[in-house]
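Final report, closing paragraph on structural work. Over the funding period we assembled a curated collection of sequence-structure pairs, and we close with a single example.
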Amino acid sequence: MRLLSFFVVYVLCCASFVTGKTLLVTSFGAKGDNATDNTAAIMATYKACAASGPGTTVVFPGSEGQIYRSFPFEIRCNDSVTLIENGATIKGIEDEDRWPFGPDCPEPAQGKTPKQMAPLLYMNYANNVSVMGGGTVDGIGSMFWSEACGNWWCPKGYTIKSPKAFRPFLFRIDHSNTITITNITMKNPGFWNLVPVHSKNIVVTDCLVNASWDDARGHRTPNTDGFEPMWSSDVTMSRCRIYNGDDCVTIKSGSSNVLVEDLYCEKGDGLTIGSVWYDNVTNVTYRRVIMNQTHNGPMIKGRSQGNATVADITFEDVQLIDVRLALTIDCVYETQGTVVPNIGVLAENVMFKNISGTVSAGSSHLLNGDPSFLVDAAGTFICLSKRPCSFSLENINVRHADASNKTEPVWLCNNTNILEDMSVSPPLSHFQTCQKN
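Its predicted structure, as stored:
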């Protein structure tokens, strides 16, 4: 029923644009020459769009491979379509001094500045807006990756203890309703890629996210999460491919009624819930997903300084290809910064179903005591004594990628209530900490 409702919203949304006015950014002075600063021309186009009334389409022409350079701008035109044509690219401008601040980062700052550099594309209180067309949005992430300090940005004169600001998202959507993003390539985000915040009825389909590992520098792009709903509801993502350096998709605090399906993830971290802080995450389904050479497979991360509940979560029909750790619930997750102890996060009614594949990366070990970094392992379920987790496993098959390794991939459990384990290989009963209650 929920999928049908999203389809109806999509059809009604797009059907209303068929007879609307069309505005080309080039008619307002934009030049796709990969050199001109088009910020003013793009903003003028959206001002005209807002004045034109419902059904207007803003077009970035792409027939000649145009690249439209710009500083951050807001898509400020309700009941509209932004058409980034196949061949067109909206690309940021590499100028550290002129890149503006945006709204504060929604992620807790842990004692550091909450300021954040502006996203290249922004929506705020938008309603019934679509972005589509086969084109590309390029956030020039290397300008920010090269001076990354954790999640923050430390250009010359700033330090990890006193950073300038959080690095910028590529595309942030605040307080918005009925937003559709279809057939767009999003590449090189300075920080997270696509981030709806306090929004609802979000549909993302047939998109490519490319923040690939930096092989030349020998490490991956920093914290380039692919899709990150926060305090958002009624969200669907389908038929997308993500190549990045952190969580492929992660559902953050305060979000509910989320469906992610037919997804391909490569080289990043996990298929994630969290990290969760203070507000509940409920009714999330991941299904029909391929995880290729990621660190984690399905994963829930709860902050020890949080107080939320993660409930009614399903991971099903997931294929694992040489991941490091197959399944994870980690309720003792933390990162550097100020930590204020709280009751912690509870994960309950979690279902892992029809998940199979291989794990790799050498001998099992714990990195800095964090169980989410156990490698070459079937799974870790580490919860809190006063808030034990509850989960079910059905039709799980995890094996070593190295066929010469005849040992069983390990399971590690602590403070867990295993509701059901059916057709699990290797059996949890082979590991003392994971005996069913």
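The first strand starts at residue 22 and ends at 24. Confidence is low (pLDDT under 50) at residues 1-18. We thank the funder for supporting this effort.
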